[in-house]
Specification:
75 residues; 0% strand; mainly alpha; flat
């Protein structure tokens, strides 16, 4: 007979998610104002949007070139 003890694992229970009181919630207009007040965040967002715009534009141009090169007709 073995005298080793098995380790007992206790399952952790999740803490219930609590909602913020209505007074603490930020309205979309307030959030926008806060965002505009932070120049670093705004610059980062603008740069990201600009990058996304050029990336999307490049994809469209590549698709158009592919269609043109391979004589694909879209009906």
């Amino acid at each position: 007979m073995s005298t080793e003890q098995k380790e007992i694992t206790v399952k952790k229970t999740r803490k219930p998610r609590t909602r913020k009181p209505v007074s603490e919630l930020v309205t979309p207009k307030q959030a926008q104002a806060n965002y505009r007040a932070d120049p670093e965040k705004l610059a980062k967002a603008r740069a990201c949007n600009r990058a996304c715009y050029y990336k999307r534009k490049a994809k469209i141009q590549a698709m158009e070139k592919y269609i043109k090169d391979n004589n694909i007709t879209i009906e």
